[in-house]
């Protein structure tokens, strides 16, 4: 007999994945005892158990599948996760709100002329590789906006990433649906008082490394790092859409709003 939601509608086929953390593995075993599951290639929904890092890994791993992902917190940081409870899983899925995310597309050219491409759900961050401070020129849609930024680094963050590394670098928290990205310096030396910019989500940001041989810089798109970059272009890609599911009473938009009032 098939499992049904309250009201008699067929329940979605779920696949459950978990991080290696002990709490996540224990939750995986518990949920697999309670609910029928299917292989990932047969699933309608992925249930992810872990922290935000594991959620990012899961999103990247299943980019091509376009499946909604319902995370439950069994890790360290759980901003992108729902609270964990083994009860009423199908009811929670049926009532969940959907947040759609569009990642950043990074195109990085290294000093040896090679081109690397990657997607970032949280941020694209440029960081100095040595004790030498980075020197970076910034253009937006082909218009030079800063001739020289001297800093430890600089990043472009999505709303999903605005509460992560971006917030730690004193960047702004961006509400979902606001249609903007954060451009945030990391330990800016000159201009010393520059705190970054809020940019429309459709722009292309270009970073040109000044003195890349003397001051080597790496570019990271979430977990993917490219070292010794010379030029980096970043833009939001609307061609890729990711779906996260959240309990209605604790949806992501509410969390972002609440985070802005935390001390």
Automatic annotation (TrEMBL):
Domain of life: Bacteria
Claim: Kinase is one of the keywords in the record: yes
EC code(s) of this entry: 2.7.1.23
A Pfam family of this chain: NAD_kinase
GO cellular component, one term: cytoplasm
Cofactor(s) recorded in Swiss-Prot or TrEMBL: a divalent metal cation
Intracellular or extracellular location(s): Cytoplasm
InterPro entries associated with the record: ATP-NAD_kinase_N, ATP-NAD_kinase_PpnK-typ_C, NAD/diacylglycerol_kinase_sf, NADK
Chief localisation class: cytoplasm
Keywords, sorted A to Z: ATP-binding, Cytoplasm, Kinase, NAD, NADP, Nucleotide-binding, Transferase
The reaction(s) this protein catalyses: NAD(+) + ATP = ADP + NADP(+) + H(+)
Residues that hold NAD(+) according to the record: 52-53, 122-123, 152, 160, 163-168
Entry similarity comment: Belongs to the NAD kinase family.
Protein name: NAD kinase
